[in-house]
């Protein structure tokens, strides 16, 4: 079954064509991140206007790459929330129009669940040879707007275990990057700054500098409590306070980046480990933009070594927003909707699968 997935919830415009929920034939993403750089955060109006401009070229390019003809596409899928209303409208109205004009079934996908299903996708590999996550699954979603832990008993059978009570993980990466004078989006920039002190092949003088600078720690909020909730605003405030006290902020950026990453990843790993243990998970899957972080990917191996279960990450390009993950989720969830009735839902909740 060939599904065309459309994603436009935030500042990306994506169209992916996926066979049987696994095999990517095309996955085209256009990001307006550069346009938001000077504001250090997404400006919804700018994002939506850019999406109106690029949605047709993005779709066209996806169809060209997949070498698919319209009559080969079996269904259209679209992320209908959560997200910015203007952005969502572009994808949802485009999907409805295509479904009506091409006479194809339309399915709607919760964007957050799309991030989880990025773990079912394979790129240019024979899907049958690749292991899939096994149920019950504990899924961690870490994106710019969300941090959630979910228990998946089967496709479509989910329970929300907990989530952030204040800032999302990606949002804190972005805010800390701003305080450190790094660019937007901040996750990538923090990772690069930290690697200046932690890369395996550092020259000896850089190693000595690292040893002398990495002598402090930031707090790990809620790491030991018995909920599956998170709170990151205190960690953010700690970084801000630390930065306001040091005289040479520029010289300390890599050290602050290392210690901030340490703290936030430690909390994410420990809570996910405890959820996987509590619910006897057979697999852990991680999704969302923050899942692109190398240090986080590395640290999650502790779950594998302690519980003996596999931890799945999407390939880096599939961790951030894209259309293929929406097509994959649509294949497994099959939530068909009336093309005349579907509405974008900016505040879509986790339980609205
Ligand atoms: O999932 P996503 O593409 O969009 C949302 O649904 O929000 O996630 C974007 C978030 C941003 O906050 C960005 O800073 C973060 O993912 N991110 C990263 C990395 N790459 C992107 N965070 C940490 N390390 C990265 N390498
Ligand atoms: Zn996302």
From TrEMBL:
Gene Ontology BP annotations: tRNA threonylcarbamoyladenosine modification
CC per GO annotation: cytoplasm
Broad class of where this protein is predominantly found: cytoplasm
TM segment ranges: none
Role: Required for the formation of a threonylcarbamoyl group on adenosine at position 37 (t(6)A37) in tRNAs that read codons beginning with adenine. Is involved in the transfer of the threonylcarbamoyl moiety of threonylcarbamoyl-AMP (TC-AMP) to the N6 group of A37, together with TsaE and TsaB. TsaD likely plays a direct catalytic role in this reaction.
NCBIfam families the record matches: gcp_kae1, T6A_TsaD_YgjD
Name of the molecule in the record: tRNA N6-adenosine threonylcarbamoyltransferase
Organism: Candidatus Curtissbacteria bacterium RIFCSPLOWO2_01_FULL_42_50
């Amino acid at each position: 079954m060939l599904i065309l997935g459309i994603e436009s919830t935030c500042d990306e415009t994506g169209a992916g064509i996926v066979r049987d929920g696994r095999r990517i034939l095309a996955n085209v993403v256009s990001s307006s991140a550069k346009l938001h750089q000077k504001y250090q955060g997404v400006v919804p109006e700018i994002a939506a206007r850019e999406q109106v401009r690029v949605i047709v070229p993005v779709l066209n390019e996806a169809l060209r790459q997949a070498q698919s003809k319209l009559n080969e596409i079996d269904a259209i899928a679209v992320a209908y929330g959560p997200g910015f209303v203007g952005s969502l409208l572009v994808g949802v109205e485009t999907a409805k129009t295509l479904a009506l004009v091409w006479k194809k079934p339309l399915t709607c996908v919760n964007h957050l669940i799309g991030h989880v299903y990025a773990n079912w996708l394979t790129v240019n590999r024979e899907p049958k040879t690749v292991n899939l996550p096994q149920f019950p699954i504990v899924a961690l979603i870490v994106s710019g707007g969300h941090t959630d832990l979910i228990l998946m008993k089967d496709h479509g059978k989910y329970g929300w275990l907990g989530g952030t009570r204040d800032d999302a993980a990606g949002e804190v990466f972005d805010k800390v990057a701003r305080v450190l004078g790094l660019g937007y989006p901040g996750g990538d920039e923090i990772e690069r700054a930290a690697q200046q002190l932690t890369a395996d092949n550092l020259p000896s003088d850089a190693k000595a500098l690292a040893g002398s600078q990495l002598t402090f720690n930031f707090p790990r909020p809620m790491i030991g409590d018995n909920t599956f909730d998170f709170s990151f605003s205190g960690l953010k405030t700690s970084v801000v306070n630390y930065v306001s006290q040091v005289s040479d902020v520029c010289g300390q950026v890599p050290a602050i980046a290392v210690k901030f990453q340490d703290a936030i990843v430690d909390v994410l790993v420990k809570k996910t480990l405890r959820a996987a243990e509590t619910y006897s998970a057979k697999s852990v899957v991680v999704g969302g933009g923050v899942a692109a972080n190398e240090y986080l990917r590395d640290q999650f191996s502790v779950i594998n070594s302690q519980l003996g279960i596999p931890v799945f990450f999407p390939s880096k390009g599939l961790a951030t927003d894209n259309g293929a993950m929406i097509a994959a989720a649509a294949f497994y969830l099959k939530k068909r909707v009336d093309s005349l009735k579907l509405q974008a839902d900016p505040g879509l909740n986790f339980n609205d699968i």
